[in-house]
């Protein structure tokens, strides 16, 4: 993940840009008022309302004060929504609110209007002590009024947006978009030449070669790996870099990130460049980690099935959104763990998440938490059928039949109503038949 991407996802970036724009706009309009204020704006002069020095001060002060109050209220509402969503759907969904462009724009517009009003207010001053004349940037004052009117519309939008953002389908859809996005980025529709399956002799030679471990400089989660930079680095030093972590893994300071083979190619510059190519942060990020958004949807389903909530329909909604992302993943060809340079030499070995990793983790959770909810178990079987129909891997489909059988066995062990067991068994049989066909 690039620095620009991380900046755009931060909560303060857009408000900071809007504040900078407000300062530039204020200074620019003040300069225009100084140059042409006395002569008017020609044909457009009728649009300017002049309220004098005292009126301008009062107007700008009222706008600045009200914007600060509204911004504080906006923060309070946002924090309340964050607390509600965190306790109901899971604390890891908070990042969606922080990265939400609507929330960032609302905060930015309020703070920018406040800052703009202050900048214009400070420019009102006495020009002559004797005659008592004042400089009043009438154009800038009128623009402040327009920004205040715009802020009222933004406030109405914010109330609608924040009300909609706490709806369960909105939260699930946001995570689904993250899941689909990472699948589109990591799993192309057709495998590239440098992602072909490795030659067994070449791969064996790489494993047998001695290597030097590259240690992590920080403790945290692997958020991203710049594989292209590592391929270039390995090519320059005629080495093979075998990564021991993948996005989503937790590492401690000093833990191994990669092994450089042969060991005599692992100089200080190679160590530093490898450490720089592996981004370690405080929390998991979905940019290169498809398991993370899948885990968020799984967590939403599990929390909905807790005794305190007991909402199987929210769990079904989470599985619906998860299915759409997993179907796309199943339709894409599996990636090789080997990356080659332009000359065809093996340069980087990196593990990529597999569809079965996500499915097995999900079905384990459903066997444990959804065992008392037949409707959710039926939706889990339907998910297996949907994903299996998109998969071109016979081994994956065969394992999915085993997952369907395990769901039925776990449900039967709870001594359910015979009718419920019969329906679930029949559904599982249909799914297994479709997967085996």
TrEMBL record:
The chain crosses the membrane at residues 12-32, 59-84, 105-127, 139-159. Keywords: Membrane, Transmembrane, Transmembrane helix. It holds the Pfam family DUF2254. The keyword Iron does not apply. This is DUF2254 domain-containing protein.
């Amino acid at each position: 993940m690039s620095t620009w991407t991380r900046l755009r996802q931060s909560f303060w970036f857009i408000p900071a840009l809007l504040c900078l724009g407000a300062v530039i706009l204020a200074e620019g309009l003040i300069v225009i008022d100084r140059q042409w204020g006395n002569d008017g704006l020609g044909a457009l002069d009728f649009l300017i309302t002049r309220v004098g020095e005292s009126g301008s001060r009062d107007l700008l002060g009222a706008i600045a004060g009200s914007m600060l109050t509204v911004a504080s209220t906006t923060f309070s509402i946002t924090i309340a929504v964050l607390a509600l969503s965190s306790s109901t759907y899971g604390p890891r969904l908070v990042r969606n609110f922080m990265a939400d462009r609507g929330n960032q724009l609302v905060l930015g517009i309020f703070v920018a209007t406040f800052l703009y009003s202050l900048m214009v207010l400070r420019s009102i001053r006495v020009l002559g002590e004797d005659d008592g004349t004042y400089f009043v940037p009438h154009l800038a004052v009128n623009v402040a009024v327009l920004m205040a009117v715009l802020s009222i519309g933004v406030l109405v939008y914010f109330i609608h947006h924040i009300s909609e953002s706490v709806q369960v389908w909105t939260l699930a859809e946001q995570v689904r978009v993250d899941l689909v996005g990472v699948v589109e980025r990591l799993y192309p529709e057709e495998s590239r030449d440098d992602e072909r399956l490795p030659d067994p002799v070449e791969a064996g030679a790489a494993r047998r070669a001695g290597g030097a471990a590259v240690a992590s400089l920080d403790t945290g989660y692997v958020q991203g790996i710049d594989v292209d930079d590592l391929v270039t680095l390995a090519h320059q030093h005629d080495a093979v870099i075998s990564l021991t972590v993948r996005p989503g893994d937790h590492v401690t300071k000093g833990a191994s990130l990669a092994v450089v083979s042969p060991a005599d190619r692992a100089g200080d510059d190679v160590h530093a460049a490898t450490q720089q190519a592996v981004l370690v942060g405080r929390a998991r990020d979905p940019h290169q980690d498809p398991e993370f958004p899948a885990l968020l949807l799984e967590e939403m389903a599990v929390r909905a099935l807790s005794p305190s909530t007991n909402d199987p329909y929210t769990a079904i909604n989470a599985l619906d959104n998860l299915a759409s992302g997993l179907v796309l993943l199943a339709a894409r060809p599996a990636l090789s763990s080997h990356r080659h340079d332009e000359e065809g030499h093996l340069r980087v070995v990196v593990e990529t998440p597999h569809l079965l990793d996500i499915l097995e983790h999900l079905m384990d959770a459903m066997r444990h938490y959804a065992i008392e909810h037949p409707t959710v178990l039926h939706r889990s079987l339907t998910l297996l059928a949907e994903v299996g129909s998109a998969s071109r891997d016979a081994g994956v489909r065969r394992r999915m039949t085993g997952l369907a059988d395990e769901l039925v066995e776990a449900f039967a062990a709870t001594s359910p109503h015979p009718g419920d067991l019969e329906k679930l068994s029949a559904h599982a049989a249909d799914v297994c038949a479709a997967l085996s066909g």
